[in-house]
Amino acid sequence: MSNTSLTFRFLLYTALLILAGSCTGNGKHAGNGRTPQPSDTLYTEQAAMEVYAYQPERALQIIDSAVIVGNISKVWADGLRARIYSWTLMGQTVDSLLGGPEDVRFDSARVIGERLLVHDSLKTNIGMHQDVLEVLVCVARRQQDTARWLRRSQELVEVCRQQGEDAEPEALRTEAEVGAVLCAMGQRERGMAQLDSVIAILDSREHRQFNWLDATIIALKRKISVLTNEEKYVETLPLARRIIDRLNDYEQHPQDYHDGTYREPQNATERADYINFYRTQMQSRLTAAYAALGEQGSMEDVYEQIERSVRDAEAREHKARYHALELQMLRQQAESRSKMMTVVAVVSVISLLLILFFATYVYFQSRRIKLKNQVLIRQINQSLSKEPAPSSEPLMAASSGDADDTTALFTTIDRCIRSERLYANANIQRQDVCDRFNIRREVLNQLLATHADGLSFPAYINGIRLTEACRLLKDEPTKTVVAIANEVGLSPRYLRRLFVEQYGVTPTEFREQREQS
User: Fold this and answer.
1) How far apart are the first and last CA of the chain?
2) Distance between CA 22 and CA 4 in Å, rounded?
3) Would you tell me the crossing angle of helices 74-87 and 56-69 to the nearest 10 degrees?
4) Which of 226, 296, 320, 479 is packed most tightly, with the most Cβ within 10 A?
């Protein structure tokens, strides 16, 4: 066949493929056109969340495709869909996609979130648990479902507290949410005390960090919303001004606030959008407050009244903050006393255990010395009677014998390491095994070279650890990866590295593949 004919056929097939792709690429969701491939880096969580605010339909298509190519699990994809439904700025578009009435997206997000809360993966993934609860809190707030709003907010605070000091801003942000819910439920005194306490703690933070700045803005916003609903416009003025002052400082010193948290804007454009968004909101609050107060008299009288009211409001605010700090200090003192009592109790228990351990150690040592003395006396008697003494180094004899003896010796050592869980000791050394079996290092090296494919001692032990970790990941789905790593004598990070090197997946991905198969 001529080269001209081959070229013509190639061009014809290419044109047909392009035409077919354009005809099948108009589906509503990803997967209706060509089959996505794993190399399609477009189908990622990051790509979806970059466009979800104004292009929710495109974000949902990316998530569907990401599931097909394996970039996102089905469970995590559901969580992302719920986040898009509840947080997108194009609510009508999502309602239309779901084919329901206005705000049907919130119902859909709530159903997905509540389904995910009982999923097994949330038991070991506290970060995903937090994301799902944030979605449910947002949905309950938007639907003014105060009962769910309060319950989910309290659950979110507990989850944040479980993550330690790094999640403290998240916990305080949600505690402010709880205060706003209590006010909405008619428990104003309790709710305002909660808000004042959170704001006081946030104000006491001396170092600049974006996550703490954002938590402060959210807490102040929640209090402004409560006061606005009560038409107490004067008290909103100092709060709105404080937010604007914080934003101005952030705008002038962005590097001082850099903390690398996921909430922080990633570039100058996002930072400017963040500042303008909240600054515009606060300026609108100030305008509305002044407009409402301007109906009460002449401009001069109104101005004086506003300034006087603002001073009074600021004085009340400072008093409330002082009271909140005082309560916080009393609470911390009570917690310190409680911790001190706990420490005393723990020290007492540990001391008692050490005494018992020492007594046990002394007992067994004396027993061991007694047995040794008995053996020594027996050996002396045997020597005096010219009877041959029994060999005390059977393993050494076996180690110097033929291939069957070395095989038996290695089998004994391997079985003992596994059955007695010697590998669980993170600090196990080659010499420990040599001492345990009364052999020389050269003998152990020769055994590993002959019967363990020439592996070094650390590689041989890590192989046993990986085998046991695989078994635990498969047979004990409720046990966390951290617990499994500790149980086999490895750190979680090193276990993850060994899994990736040996199997090409992380321990969590290994477990998910086993669950799906």
Assistant:
1) 49
2) 27
3) 180
4) 226
Q: How far apart are CA 191 and CA 513, in angstroms?
A: 46
pLDDT of residue 10: 44
**What residue type is 120 in one-letter code?**
D
Eight-state DSSP code of residue 38 = T
Rounded Cα distance, 515 and 477, in Å: 9
Residue 130: count of CB within 10 angstroms of its CB: 20
Q: Does residue 298 or residue 62 have the better pLDDT?
A: 62
Of residues 212, 176, 169, the one with CA closest to residue 197: 176
Task: Provide φ and ψ at 480, rounded to 5°.
Answer: -75, 160
Q: How far is CA 211 from CA 94, 196, 260, 297, in A?
A: 30, 19, 9, 42
Per-residue pLDDT of 237-275, as tens digits, reads 899 999 999 999 999 989 988 888 878 888 888 888 889
33 vs 27, 206, 245, 254, CA distance in Å? 7, 54, 51, 44
AA letter at 471: R
pLDDT at 39: 45
pLDDT tens, residue by residue, 281-307:
888 888 888 887 765 554 455 456 556
